[in-house]
Amino acid sequence: MRYQGSTQFDVLASDEDAAGAATIGSREFDRLHSA
Q1: Strands (E), 1-35
Q2: What is the value of pTM for the model shown?
Q3: H or E segment at 35?
Q4: DSSP per residue, 1-35
Q5: Which residues is 11 bridged to in the sheet?
Q6: Do residues 2 and 13 make contact, with C-beta atoms less than 8 angstroms apart?
Q7: What is the pLDDT of residue 1?
Q8: Is the four-CA dihedral 5, 10, 2, 21 of positive or negative sign?
Q9: Which of 28, 23, 1 is nearest to 12 (CA)?
Q10: What are phi and psi of 28, to 5 degrees?
């Protein structure tokens, strides 16, 4: 969560470093959404 200061809301944001990004497959996606 990143607080947006005077705008009074938070943003759920991903890491800005593209090198740290990971890709998940369909099995991982399905597991995440079945929990």
Answers
A1: 2-3, 10-11
A2: 0.37
A3: none
A4: -EE-GGG--EE----S-GGG-----HHHHHHHHH-
A5: 2
A6: yes
A7: 61
A8: negative
A9: 1
A10: -65, -40
**Which amino acid makes up residue 1?**
M
Question: Which two three-digit tokens encode residue 2?
Answer: 């990143």
Residue pointed to by tokens 């998940």: 24
Sign (positive or negative) of CA dihedral 16, 22, 25, 31: negative
Show the tokens assigned to 16.
């800005």
pLDDT tens digits for range 12-25: 777 777 676 678 88
The pair of three-digit structure tokens given for residue 13, joined into one six-digit string: 């944001």
Residue 27 pLDDT class (50, 70, 90 cuts) = very high
Using the structure block, give the residue that is written with the tokens 């597991």.
31
What is the rounded distance in angstroms from the CA atom of residue 10 to the CA atom of residue 2?
5
